[in-house]
């Protein structure tokens, strides 16, 4: 309420109480003021009531919520369903304009503020997470892969003749496809096996640059966060190489914001060499729903060029989610989450090590990977089906995210054939199982995972030999339920009334 | 509740009441069953209670909501803020997989169902809206422009050597930029002036094809919905030409679903010639927040090729919005909205005509444009500022979407310079004002708009001559407030307490 | 946002857009201002966005939402569940203080405002609905019966020696029990049969007054809204009698606000005689959840005396519901609902009449009852079970609220035995069925009811004779499912998977 | 979804994923099943998703949510505002029937289940909190005072001639008024000063019984939770006396559920003597909004008699709140809250003791009071205004619940004059300040309170002498802001834009 309405209220309820109420309101306004003035994530998180007050205020500023508005355009922010209006806090106009996803909309002052503030708060958090010299960023309502594509498309205009992207191999489809979709030709650089780790082969990168000619290379496309035993690329050296040969450098930092190591690599790369943009997922780093990414960089004009490359308006939903989340956590809350993640990484590593040893396996030594761990599955017959079956067993026991990697899987993606797909290399010495300590993980997650994994490994040991003939699995998808699961599920369903109806 | 729980409840509350409750539950289940079985939009809209029940059921099927789940992956659908979880009905995993935006996710059976059903329901509605033979479509969480880009990028792989896109001019930045972003060279075909209308110059299109060579042309990129006096492209003839020369044909049907004429053009084009894909906005056609589009076509494998081109997962938010909306409207509700829109178009045309005549202007004759209308501003001096000022006046009077188009505006977009920008042609005979009857428009919108426009025109007439020297406006943006507005706003703010603080 | 924050926002987003946003906010504030100043229901309903903005503003003024509050009392408005906090808009402190349910709470300026405004708005609506001279009222979070009890308890202190309450019979348990609970002795005055109608026997009332002595009578307890064929009491004459003998007069106006006739009776009674308080249900008159009532009267100090009689704080939930509802409807919306109800009353009467005649029955002539109608069930055997069975059939066919009244039912309530219970008289000439046109009823309700009733009557006619021996019903409860229903329900459940599990 | 719909879904999304989804749903159902079967609070709290799923299921069973329902009654559970419907989870019919607030409603199987389950869960928690032999209870949507009134009104029917209620004095208006409202004459028994504590004067109670005659006494009305230096009544001895003289015994256990001591007293009283009912607040014990109470006892038929005394239906809102809260906490969560409260009590006592000593005051020794503490204000001049001013200062500094008690306050409540009101005795030796450790209190509450209190005491010391002449306060209300506050508030408001407008 404004001052006038507080004044009138004093005639209804005692002045002193109303004034205290007005004063209380002011404390919420002060928080909002700080946010607007500084454009930084608040240190301590906001109450839900302040967040909702703020979002309501923003909504009121958008023309679709003007009480006296009349609309005769083709896009007026009308909403047919009140469920939909409500879940978006009545912020309907999205973000950006046809010219620029970061631009301000005349019809939607509130949504425009939301967009600007979100980008500012996210920039602040990227700094706090370790990339202190990042100068510009924006949230884009596309996941990491498509955001990388947008970066590559932007580079096409800068380097019209270039057609190759140098890419140290990482077996994840989205980032590979991001290059294909942009219309470029990936040049795959295999990793070197150093101990258990798979690391960037710098020599081959440089020889490829020379072989193809720097002017024909769109960019180097490197990766930080990845599944062990691959480890983050040697960013410093790559960045120096890019600087030397004047080749742009785009870093896929998918879930690296949560790791100080990944962020440090980017900071160092930018300090000693060249990094044009680094891209990270919103959901993987900030515990929001899938669908947004942050494109960030050290040169404001290049980042702006990318934001201007996005044709048209875009969904405000990912921006809204990350803003709500960061306001409710505050910098301190986010840092606390990072700290807990790190602790859980250590705990997971210890527990996995114990478990591995108990089963005659070992935890691979991949100390350069700060998030993902791998445990060998050497005792398993070197038989894809057996390993895959373990994956299925874990899936049906509600262990999600534990990835088994058999040997010898071959897969073709967009016309390119990968040997040993999923293992980042043509032939890794042993099959293995991945587990990661990602932001938000709890001690209970680790304990349950270890317990169930232990049980599965025991079951497997007991049964192996007998069962191998009746195994079946969908190719390369460890998370897919096999027949075994179906029978197990059926068992669990036994007491259910449903059973009668099912044609199993 | 399942049967067992209903049974137990009978011991607490009389059997007959519980059974009636169970029976009532079953009627909700029947609606859900029909949706699952038929994959069609229900004829009559669902109650909010059925919709929320259904969404809750879907959420329960996603692994992030499993009560016994433990997660050791890098993406586990954890949510930090309960405000965020709630607004997404706890559906966190988004849609698609790295391989395909339409693919099913093992971790998220509920979100996967949501995705499949949304695409099915939307396909059903496209048919009901007039494109009866459309065979496949999918919702993508990007606005129209970026969706067009995705189509063009897909074509690159089919036609690696082609680099031109033939594009009958329409002055809207997103669709122009969609071609630039994809890395192609737009070949702009100016429209022909026929009466007041700007129509497709078929002859020039064909001569361009011959000139450039069909094999060098990525596609023809035509448009249905647009601002008058431009009218929808001659789709039938273009489609025939594309068939003849074996050139792909992508239609920008941005807000055309709401118009039976636009939909009919597409249906006809596909019948007699070639249309590979048509793209439409979710927000402009279905009254949901900005940020989603539908990519549809007549050849399932090509549409699937596009969906596979999207690298990685994507936000489920636009799918969720459109599904909620269509379930709550039902086919009948949506058709009713289309009917009302058509009626309001007629009403707006009549009222605008009367107003135009009263002010010595005329309603341009653009009967081929089923949505947008244009009223001449000939009596206005042919002075950009004057026209722009009218736009500002309307903006500050909360008439949104009324677009004024001065003559002689030159604008450069992505390196291409357009004469007469906004008017779709180098030199239209007169400045004019646009108003549209878009889905959701009410009689009150029309009445208020006419009333305020009338007042502005009168004010303007009174003042003109005196003021022209002090006018100022941001280039080409009629919706931008000028100084005039600021002083007017200040006036309105006069009684406000705030005033003291403002440094106006 | 306050002015300061708007100012800062202008540095982030263009001034003119922000100012328009600030202006838009002001229109919401103006609505709130009008409400605060006038204390009246707005003529036109508010948008949901204004309502929620207002409720958020109120919540912010309560101490449990102060950001810097520390609480060391025994009641601090803490909430354990965020679901609970949210559903109450964080207004936790309830209404009233230990001294007075209408009093202001120091800890809760917002809740106090809510309470005061609700009472003011409700008073305004009572006036608009016909009792123009009502001077005071308050919402109490108890249903009608308990609210009547509170009125009687208040009178005890004014008339310590009195112990009788004169009560023209109406067969509804709550209002009868309200006297018993208050510790008084009801003196039941039977109605007179005039035509089909049951009307107040004024002569007996007066003779009872004389017989018992006015000073021994706590009050006359009369009724407006009731089931036909009883009609509203002769309030004018009763009020005159009360004035003459100086006896308080409490009117049970349970669902009478929705009927201009009932409201007129009260207005007239107060004009020509004495009415001390009239009590009405919130849920039955304002389409809110069960649990609140309005106690209103013409003498402010007596109404205040009642409000002071309530010991302690009370739930704000019913006040919140009715305030939200009236703000969203506005006076015009509420009047429109009343108008539609009246029209549906006429329609229901016509349709019921036709149906009655088709089945050899008749619509009872009860024109003094403006809400409830009765159709004879004379052709039915005069057998309670048969009539009751009809009730059950309607219940299982989801016709709710259609009440069948057999003859000869005897029931004992709190030690008093009523002959012909439910029919308001010892022996009504025929069994009958009630249907009412209450606020919110739709044409579809009427049509479906008539259709299903027709079907039931036909079925019944066909089956009667055969089935009468196996009928069973819970005493006097027509809405209770009988065995017949169970078998019918079972039939409907046949296709259900559930069936296997049920022990029918 | 039922089994059928899961089956159909398998055709849309892979069987194994759907089955895992169905299995996940079953785990929610299992929780619900346990609740229905055992009628106990779950040990571990439920997720919000399970709670909402359950509430949605209940709502679907109520006739107002039947998709095919037609209503022709006077109360059909229609809701005008979707905001209102939503906040009640569409449970509109309230609880109870005209005959009994605990009865089942034919129209509302879901609400009826809610009511029954809430009472069962609450009973379970009362047992867990220490009254192991409690046999029956129900939630009533009235605060403690009105609930006590209902108990007394019920006793009237058992003891029609009795008119006195024996009441060991406690200075809280609601519980005193609860007797007045019920129409009885309180017989006030002053407490004895033992050390610093005020304790039950058993001898006087017994002599009053003899003096008035047991048959003339409605009941003894004792109290557990209260402000120090009063301590809980000697329940054991009172209960024995009640047994001996055959007098009912009603215990006001307002906020005693949170204290094992209070609960133990009740358990012991019932074991060795007579307790007919004990009444406790929902908000004060379970952190829900104000407005509900639990009436509990050891004799099921007496508790049922009370529930039948409530005339008519009632709001389900308090039941819904407490059910949601207990399901989300679980028994373990609730016990954890009790444990933390106890720890904070000790901490608060220590801190207050230190502070008192630093200011030349002392913490009163009131070890029998497990919740409330008192610190002497002896150094203060024995001047009501000075003490009251301290209260105001704390109020404006957002210390809520810290109650200052001056000497010599006289207050008349419902015609009875109390000397030394607020101090539970005619003349307590010194003025004092209360602070309590109530459920939900945090260490931060204590720290802030101590800090601000310290500051106030210092300020006061500095200023005393100068200011005493300009003090003013509303009689007896320490929480009321005085002029001093107003000027202080004005100071704080200084920077505010608002200031200009205010007429201070």
TrEMBL record, chains A, B, C, D:
| Enzyme Commission (EC) number | 2.9.1.2
Kindly list the cofactors needed: pyridoxal 5'-phosphate
Superkingdom classification of source:
Eukaryota
Pathway(s) the chain acts in: Aminoacyl-tRNA biosynthesis; selenocysteinyl-tRNA(Sec) biosynthesis; selenocysteinyl-tRNA(Sec) from L-seryl-tRNA(Sec) (archaeal/eukaryal route): step 2/2
Q: What is the lineage of its organism?
A: Eukaryota, Metazoa, Chordata, Craniata, Vertebrata
Protein name, please? O-phosphoseryl-tRNA(Sec) selenium transferase
Q: Which reaction does it catalyse?
A: O-phospho-L-seryl-tRNA(Sec) + selenophosphate + H2O = L-selenocysteinyl-tRNA(Sec) + 2 phosphate
Q: Show the ranges annotated as biased composition (Basic and acidic residues).
A: 463-473
Note the subunit structure: Homotetramer formed by a catalytic dimer and a non-catalytic dimer serving as a binding platform that orients tRNASec for catalysis. Each tetramer binds the CCA ends of two tRNAs which point to the active sites of the catalytic dimer.
Q: Where is this region: Disordered?
A: 463-489
Q: What does this protein do?
A: Converts O-phosphoseryl-tRNA(Sec) to selenocysteinyl-tRNA(Sec) required for selenoprotein biosynthesis.
Q: Does the keyword DNA-binding apply?
A: no
- Name the principal localization, coarsely classed: cytoplasm
InterPro entries assigned to the protein according to its UniProt record, in alphabetical order: PyrdxlP-dep_Trfase, PyrdxlP-dep_Trfase_major, Sec-tRNA_Se_transferase, SepSecS/SepCysS
Q: Which family does it belong to?
A: Belongs to the SepSecS family.
**Has keyword Amino-acid biosynthesis?**
no
Q: Which UniProt keywords apply?
A: Cytoplasm, Protein biosynthesis, Pyridoxal phosphate, RNA-binding, Selenium, Transferase, tRNA-binding
EC top class named in words: transferase
Query: What's one GO MF term for it?
Result: transferase activity
Q: Where in the cell is it found?
A: Cytoplasm
């Amino acid at each position: 309420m404004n001052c006038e309405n507080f004044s009138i209220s004093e005639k209804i309820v005692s002045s002193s109480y109303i004034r205290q109420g007005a004063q209380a309101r002011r404390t919420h306004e002060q928080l909002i003021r700080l946010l607007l003035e500084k454009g930084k994530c608040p240190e301590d998180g906001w109450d839900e009531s302040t967040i909702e007050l703020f979002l309501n205020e923003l909504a009121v500023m958008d023309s679709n919520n003007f009480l006296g508005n009349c609309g005769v355009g083709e896009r007026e922010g009308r909403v047919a369903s009140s469920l939909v209006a409500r879940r978006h806090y009545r912020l309907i106009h999205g973000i950006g304009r046809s010219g620029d996803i970061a631009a301000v909309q005349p019809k939607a002052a509130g949504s425009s503020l939301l967009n600007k503030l979100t980008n500012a708060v996210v920039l602040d958090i990227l700094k706090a997470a370790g990339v202190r010299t990042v100068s510009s960023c924006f949230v884009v309502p596309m996941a990491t892969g498509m955001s990388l594509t947008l970066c590559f498309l932007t580079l096409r205009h800068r380097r019209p003749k270039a057609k190759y992207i140098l890419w140290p191999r990482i077996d994840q489809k989205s980032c590979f496809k991001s290059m294909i979709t942009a219309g470029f030709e990936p040049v795959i650089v295999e990793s070197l096996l150093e101990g258990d780790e798979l690391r960037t082969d710098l020599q081959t990168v440089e020889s490829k640059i020379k072989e193809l000619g720097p002017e024909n290379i769109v960019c180097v496309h490197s990766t930080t966060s990845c599944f062990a035993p691959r480890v983050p690329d040697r960013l410093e050296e790559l960045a120096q190489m890019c600087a030397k040969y004047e080749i742009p450098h785009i870093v896929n930092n998918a879930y690296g914001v949560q790791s100080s190591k990944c962020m440090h690599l980017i900071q160092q790369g930018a300090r000693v060499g060249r990094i044009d943009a680094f891209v990270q997922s919103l959901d993987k780093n900030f515990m929001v729903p899938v669908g947004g990414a942050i494109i960030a960089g050290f040169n404001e004009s290049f980042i702006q060029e990318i934001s201007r490359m996005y044709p048209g308006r875009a969904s405000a939903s990912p921006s809204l989610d990350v803003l709500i989340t960061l306001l409710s956590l505050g910098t301190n809350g986010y840092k606390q989450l990072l700290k807990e993640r790190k602790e859980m990484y250590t705990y997971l590593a210890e527990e996995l090590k114990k478990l591995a040893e108990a089963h005659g396996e070992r935890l691979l030594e991949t100390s350069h990977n700060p998030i993902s761990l791998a445990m060998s599955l050497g005792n398993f017959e070197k038989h894809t089906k057996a390993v895959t079956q373990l994956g299925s067993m874990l899936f049906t026991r509600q262990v999600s995210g534990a990835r088994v990697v058999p040997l010898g899987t071959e897969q073709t993606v967009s016309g390119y054939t990968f040997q040993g797909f999923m293992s980042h290399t043509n032939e890794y010495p042993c099959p293995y199982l991945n587990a990661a300590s990602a932001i938000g993980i709890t001690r209970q997650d680790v304990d349950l995972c270890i317990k169930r994994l232990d049980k599965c490994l025991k079951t497997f040991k007991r049964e192996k030999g007998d069962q191998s003939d009746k195994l079946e699995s969908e190719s390369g998808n460890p998370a897919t339920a096999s027949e075994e699961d179906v029978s197990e599920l059926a068992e669990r369903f036994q007491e259910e009334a449903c059973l009668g109806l099912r044609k199993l």
